[in-house]
Amino acid sequence: MMAGATSATAAAGAFAAGTKPRGSASACPWVVAAGGRRRSGVVRCDAGGDAQAVAKAASIAALEQFKISADRYMKERSSIAVIGLSVHTAPVDMREKLAVAEELWPRAISELTSLNHIEEAAVLSTCNRMEIYVVALSWNRGIREVVDWMSKKSGIPASELREHLFMLRDSDATRHLFEVSSGLDSLVLGEGQILAQVKQVVRNGQNSGGLGKNIDRMFKDAITAGKRVRCETNISAGAVSVSSAAVELALMKLPKSECLSARMLLIGAGKMGKLVVKHLIAKGCTKVVVVNRSVERVDAIREEMKDIEIVYRPLTEMYEAAAEADVVFTSTASESLLFTKEHAEALPPISLAMGGVRLFVDISVPRNVGACVSDVEHARVYNVDDLKEVVEANKEDRLRKAMEAQTIISQELKRFEAWRDSLETVPTIKKLRSYADRIRASELEKCLTKIGEDNLNKKMRRSIEELSTGIVNKLLHGPLQHLRCDGSDSRTLDETLENMHALNRMFSLDTEKAVLEQKIKAKVEKTQS
After folding, report:
1. What top-level branch of life does the organism fall under (predicted)?
2. Does residue 366 have a cis peptide bond before it, meaning omega lies within 30 degrees of 0?
């Protein structure tokens, strides 16, 4: 397990123990049904509109109370946090209950940012992880609200979730995302698909307008870190993806003398499915049957990959195709199981030359093949959690590259934290500048009145205005320099914040309280609307 996975797993243990690591049940299409499988339907609200009105009133009341007690939060900086679970901390049956389809990310973000103590949010949901990144007004209350949201959306009790969740705060949360983007926290070290998925979070947020300033910048810097790690450490050289690991696993389980003659079936012609075909070609396979809802995607893969015979079968012929296959790869976005024990029992047996066992390699989350299929004598199921057997190879080389990558990640982390620290003093800089400009304008008006308009030409007036502006700029230069915290000098954040507090007191700027009240007001108005 890589550095990010280790810290995340440790944090999961701390969370389950109730310690803090360092560092409205609305209708929703991804709610889990009682049987544990997800349904695309909508949950009914038995209490009706009255219950919603009561919940809304309670939410507004809580925010108003938060506003009254704002002084208590003045000392607490908004925290960046990640709350989630991954292949390192939770089994696939739990991950699939929490998975959020990409088209539902904007809705999830909207629901999360409507929580009382959450300012910004992003969702990263893949086959190996489900992570929620937030900026929280209050650490404890914000985390509690997110965990409750996850519990309601998945149907998993919060107490059970806590046994598998990890939580990281501020620099630890940011480092984790940078490690994820770099492929250091992946089941397969250095795999490239996760970087594309992180990029998709940003694209999705830009299209929906859902990402806030901090989260947007953090994800963009994570993409930069991921690109640098891959370019500068060569970590992707020889690395396998989930799809290639799936192909490798299937070939490992087949008799060596027969693996290239095995009848291969792929169900699903999306990105993951396309990669399966690519890696089958690399292993020397010459034919694969592809089952997909439409023929267009299969034709596109056939056009791109000329070194293998690709036979298309429509979705209606899936079980007939499975009956003729020795290995079945599944990679679809189906919300329900494609193969159950009953389906597997109905399939004809496999020849003894192929080991007498039909292999189902399921790389979908939610899963396409039920675990019960392995109860059938002539069938075995492998899912994404079983790929660990493949990726243990060349562990030493991967760890060495991961150490090199950490240096790059630390550099990018320092840049992001310097940017975020600089945001702390922006309100004070603006208020101080505004305060000085008001005095300058007032005194300038008095001066011009005393001199008299008739005694001034345009050049003289402009010279006096420039003189007043120059004096203010010269006076403000020193204080503003001491509010800089962008990593360009040796001044620490604590020193800069001390200077900021001193200026706030001297000029009665009250920027911290004004900023906090502005945030709370925005939350109240959003809830009321």
Report:
1. Eukaryota
2. yes
Residues counted in the chain: 529
| Nearest in space to 467 (alpha carbons), one of 444, 487, 498, 485 | 444
Instruction: Name the catalytic one among 28, 45, 127, 485.
Output: 127
d(CA 493, CA 525): 33
Q: Where are the alpha helices (DSSP H) in 383-456?
A: 388-391, 395-451
Token readout for 163 is: 């046994």
Return the minimum-mean-pLDDT range out of 136-145, 202-211, 255-264: 202-211
Q: From edge to edge, which strands make up the β-sheet containing 166-169?
A: 118-125, 129-136, 79-86, 166-169
Burial of 412 (0-12, 13-18, 19+ CB in 10 A): buried
Give the single-character DSSP code of 309.
Answer: E
pTM of the model: 0.63
DSSP assignments along 229-285, one per residue? HHHHH-TTTT---HHHHHHHHHHHHS-TTTGGGS-EEEE--SHHHHHHHHHHHHTT-
Assign residue 356 a region: left if phi > 0, alpha if psi is -120 to 50, beta otherwise?
left
Question: Residue 259 catalytic?
Answer: no
Which pLDDT tens digit goes with each residue over 167-219?
999 999 999 999 999 989 887 777 778 898 999 999 988 877 778 889 999 99
Residues 406, 271: Cα–Cα separation, whole Å: 29
